[in-house]
Write a structure and sequence with these properties.
Elements lengths: L1 H14 L5 E2 L4 E3 L3 E3 L5 E7 L6 E7 L9 E4 L13 E5 L2 E5 L5 E4 L10 E5 L5 E5 L8 E2 L7 E2 L4 E5 L4 E2 L2 E6 L2 E12 L4 E6 L3 E5 L20 E7 L3 E8 L6 E5 L5 E7 L4 E8 L14 E3 L7 E3 L3 E3 L2 H5 L7 E3 L11 E8 L7 E3 L4 H10 L5 E5 L2 E5 L6 E2 L6 E8 L18 H22 L6 E3 L2 E3 L2 H7 L6 E3 L4 E7 L5 E7 L6 H12 L9 E7 L2 E7 L6 H5 L10 H21 L14 E3 L5 E3 L4 H4 L4 H7 L10 H4 L6 H16 L15 H11 L17 H14 L10 H9 L11 H8 L15 H14 L1
Parallel strand pairs: 25-33, 36-40
Antiparallel strand pairs: 1-10, 2-7, 3-4, 4-5, 5-6, 7-8, 8-9, 10-11, 11-12, 13-22, 14-15, 14-21, 16-17, 17-18, 18-19, 20-21, 22-23, 23-24, 25-26, 27-28, 29-34, 30-32, 31-32, 31-34, 35-36, 37-38, 38-39, 39-41, 40-41, 42-43
The chain binds 2-acetamido-2-deoxy-beta-D-glucopyranose (9 copies).
């Protein structure tokens, strides 16, 4: 008893004073903590979410958020409930956690320490180490060797060559439960790559192999100064470790409960973690994220829904956004009672795994096969192949454009009325869609009532379907032209309710009415503050028109390329435009259901609203025109200065083509003239090569600025934009940043490296061959040659 009292006395003194150490004669309990010397990290009991479970963990003290950001958990599978009775203390040289019943529930579990000289120290890198005072400084145990879900700088994630086992970074089970979740990250030493797995088996992501500088799937790494990764291998183990170049940057990798590996950076200004990067890019690429019979959809929250006729297996889990427990049938199927069984069609991105192939010749036989097999859950019949699933359906991702159709067995009475088998082709997934349908119907009815006096104009989804004659009147027979482009001319119009609109008359649309309506209604669902809103359309025979919100400040080119002082954009506005357009493009490239490549980024397509908020116009239109882009190209006018080289080389064009055009536009935002425009001082020159030069030699960056601005701009911002622009116009698509990364750089979350000189620019300087995006397809190359010699001399 006396011994216990002594213990109590000793730890209250030493641990409450912010010590970084637990000694052999001390224990930690209640709200006591230890704090690393530089006060970066703190160790103690914490509560996970709103649950009543407590754990011993380490969290950031300096980068403090509420609730604290946990980086390591000791007893992740064995929570305690009373922190004032539980204690963490040394027993025979091991750090042991005793719960409220004095039962040991976690231990460092090492066998080779002397009894009393061992101490536990929390270091400033977040590592808890056990040191045997009498022996070497090498720790006898360290938390870095037992990773949970966070990989901190200085720690490693290794493959042990003696046990042939990988260390795993494993997700928490949910935000309220740090137990081992389904998703893990591990190293494959032979290929030097990290992979993500579901439930220890199914791989769903790889970093690509390490080439000495970057992981091949993550080319963004080259652009930024943040991390210094190194690969180390010896006879015992192989691993990567990393450090942060700038010691003041606080950063971490986590295997998130979403199954995505995330890289986060602390923003002191807002006291928040900023998501810098996450892989796989979209939630629905995470294997089986929605569990059995759950369908993932990339648009809208929550990501998961149960299939029609199914409900969450655990409502409690689903309420916590923990979807992996999946769904079950609302009504169990009664084997043999085929009258009560229906099949519901679901459009999925790809058929789920673990199917069995059945040799039958028709969809009907395939269906009968599944119907008569009590264990069969679903079938599909495509390309004359019948597949059936006797297992739970996993990894379903909603996609009603490009996917496959599978037919799921459900109890007939669980189908909403409009989904009975007659209607099967119109089937949609889940009850949420059902609600949306009803809502849409109500809106439709209301709208119809309001519009009844017009007699003609109707709603289609969120879009107004106009009658040609109405638009003809609104635009005074297409008399006030606002602009033109690759897809047709734009006219100002005033509708009957006196709202002002921009009406685009499309040319060279090869699609039929039905396909056109379907594409247009897709475009109509795309809404973002930096995208011009489509409000309606007209499709009558060969007349195809689109109706957009009117933008009172016109297009960017009218401000940039005109000498007038009164509509000059100051630097702050220009920077805002660069950032806004980056955000609009991130939305198109990554946040929509299908990735949309704009294909025609240029100042003409950037419109400014009354507050000079930039809005991207004409997105989604490339889809309306012929899929044969070479034909589209010839109809693009005034776009040559923005085309990525791959447009002309014939390889499939990706979102990185937009990045290229965006980069070209950034140069013009700085310069205030067309990149390739002839100017007084040099007969004609190529501005990007000038920028590359000034950056390379560390010259006067403001000398590049539009002279009308009189050097009134932030050097830091101009430098940043110039660097980003050079990265964007790299020849290799992989070297160009994603728009997401561009956005983060412009927001100041991420620093940007010095770019390599773009090859197109180098070619230009070397005076070897004309660069593709600068030559007029039909005319001779003479002007190109001129400008090359000129800029070469100006750079010398
Ligand atoms: C606890 O142990 C440390 C060394 O491990 C020693 O310096 C200290 O005096 C001890 N305290 C008590 C109260 O025994
Ligand atoms: C720690 O717990 C004790 C006892 O419940 C309480 O008096 C004290 O205020 C707590 N300290 C902090 C910092 O919460
Ligand atoms: C926890 O509970 C508080 C209040 O009871 C509530 O405001 C908060 O949203 C809850 N947090 C979570 C993650 O459920
Ligand atoms: C400690 O190791 C033993 C066997 O080596 C194992 O059975 C036990 O689960 C381990 N305990 C902890 C808390 O890791
Ligand atoms: C994960 O795999 C184990 C077998 O390795 C299996 O028993 C378990 O059901 C799987 N979990 C899920 C959610 O499918
Ligand atoms: C990157 O890390 C390695 C290994 O820790 C080190 O040798 C190298 O100097 C670091 N590079 C830079 C530029 O800091
Ligand atoms: C791993 O260990 C084996 C022997 O167990 C050895 O042959 C091999 O070279 C080791 N691998 C590395 C990368 O050192
Ligand atoms: C590998 O492990 C053995 C035994 O633990 C040790 O003696 C040796 O130094 C280790 N090799 C390296 C390169 O760390
Ligand atoms: C889940 O959330 C819904 C709506 O918020 C609520 O009605 C239901 O009771 C919750 N279920 C459980 C088990 O928490």
């Amino acid at each position: 008893m006396g011994f216990l009292l002594l213990l109590c006395f000793s730890f209250t003194i030493s641990l409450s004073s912010g010590a970084d150490t637990i000694s052999a004669n001390q224990s930690l309990s209640g709200n006591q903590t230890i704090i690393s010397k530089g006060e970066n990290f703190e160790l103690g009991f914490f509560r996970a979410g709103n649950s009543s479970n407590y754990y011993i963990g380490i969290w950031y003290k300096k980068a403090y958020s509420n609730p604290p950001t946990i980086v390591w958990v000791a007893n992740r599978e064995t929570p305690i409930s009373d922190i004032f009775i539980s204690e963490l203390k040394f027993v025979n040289g091991n750090l042991v956690l005793f719960n409220e019943y004095k039962v040991p529930i976690w231990s460092t579990n090492i066998t080779t320490t002397s009894l009393n000289s061992v101490i536990a120290v929390l270091l400033d890198d977040g590592n808890l180490v056990l040191r045997d005072g009498s022996k070497s400084v090498e720790p006898v145990w360290q938390s870095f060797d037992h990773p949970v879900h966070t990989w901190l700088p200085g720690a490693k994630l290794a493959y042990d060559n003696r046990t042939k086992k990988s260390q795993l970074l494993t997700s928490w089970r949910s935000n309220e439960d740090p137990g081992v979740g389904l998703f893990s990250l591990e190293l494959i030493p032979s290929t030097k790559e990290y992979i993500s797995k579901w439930n220890g088996s199914q791989q769903y992501w790889t970093s690509g192999s390490w080439n000495g500088q970057i992981f091949s799937i993550v080319p963004e790494m080259r652009l930024t100064y943040i991390y210094n990764f190194s690969f180390i291998t010896n006879e015992n183990e192989s691993y990567f470790t990393y450090s942060v170049y700038n010691p003041s940057v606080i950063s971490r990798f986590v295997m998130d409960v979403s199954g995505q590996v995330q890289q986060l950076t602390w923003l002191e200004a807002t006291k928040q973690w900023n998501l810098f990067w996450s892989q796989p890019k979209t939630q629905c690429q995470v294997y089986a994220f929605c569990g059995a019979f759950g369908a993932c959809r990339q648009t809208g929250l929550p990501f998961c829904k149960c299939l029609t006729g199914f409900k969450p297996k655990s409502e409690n889990d689903w309420n916590q956004s923990l979807f992996s427990s999946g769904c079950v049938r609302i009504t169990d199927l009664e084997c043999g009672n085929n009258k009560e069984i229906s099949f519901v069609a679901v459009e999925v991105a790809k058929v789920p795994p673990n199917s069995v192939s059945v040799a039958v010749g028709s969809g009907g036989e395939c269906r009968t096969n599944c119907l008569n097999n009590c264990r069969c859950n679903a079938y599909s019949f495509e390309d004359n192949r019948c597949l059936v699933w006797d297992v739970e359906l996993l990894d379903l991702s909603e996609d009603n454009v490009n996917g496959a159709t599978i037919y799921i067995k459900v109890a007939s009475k669980d189908l909403p009325p409009q989904l009975h088998e007659k209607n099967i082709l119109g089937a949609v997934i889940g009850s949420v869609a059902g609600v949306a349908f009803v809502l849409g119907l109500i809106l439709f009815v209301i709208y119809r009532k309001k519009r009844i006096s017009d007699g003609k104009t109707t709603m289609e989804g969120s879009l107004v379907s106009f009658v040609y004659r109405d638009l003809q009147i609104a635009t005074k027979n297409f008399s006030e032209k606002l602009g033109g482009g690759g897809f047709g001319s734009v006219f100002k119009g005033v509708l009957r309710d006196s709202s002002v609109v921009a009406v685009k008359k499309l040319e060279s649309i090869s699609q039929g009415d039905k396909q056109f309506r379907s594409e247009v209604s897709t475009i109509g669902t795309i809404q973002h503050v930096n995208l011009v809103r489509l409000c309606g359309f007209c499709a009558q025979g060969s007349s195809k028109l689109l109706v957009y919100d009117y933008m009172p400040n016109g297009s960017l080119d009218s401000h940039l390329f005109h000498e007038k002082q009164d509509n000059l954009l100051n630097w702050k506005t220009r920077y805002g435009i660069a950032l806004g357009i980056a955000r609009g493009l991130v939305y198109l490239h990554e946040k929509c259901r299908d990735c949309i490549i704009h294909c025609d980024i240029k100042p003409e397509n950037i419109l400014l609203d009354a507050d000079f908020c930039p809005k991207l116009a004409d997105f989604g239109l490339a889809k309306l025109v012929d899929r044969d882009f070479s034909r589209v190209l010839t109809t693009f006018r005034g776009t040559k200065g923005y085309l990525a080289p791959e447009w002309l080389s014939g390889v499939p064009v990706t979102a990185k083509a937009d990045v290229f055009s965006y980069g070209m536009m950034l140069f013009e935002l700085v310069y205030g003239k067309r990149n390739a425009e002839q100017s007084d001082e040099s007969k004609s020159r190529f501005f990007p090569s000038l920028v590359a030069n000034v950056l390379m030699v560390g010259g006067d960056i403001l000398s590049l600025l539009d002279n009308r601005l009189n050097r009134e701009a932030s050097v830091e911002q101009v430098t940043k934009i110039c660097k980003v622009a050079c990265w964007c116009i790299q020849d290799e698509e992989d070297s160009r940043p994603s728009m997401n990364l561009v956005e983060q750089i412009l927001e100041g979350v991420v620093d940007v490296n010095m770019p390599p000189v773009p090859r197109s620019v180098t070619l230009f300087l070397d005076n070897t061959e004309p660069i593709v995006f600068f030559t007029e397809p039909s005319s001779s190359n003479s002007s190109g040659d001129d400008s090359q010699s000129k800029s070469a001399s100006s750079s010398g």
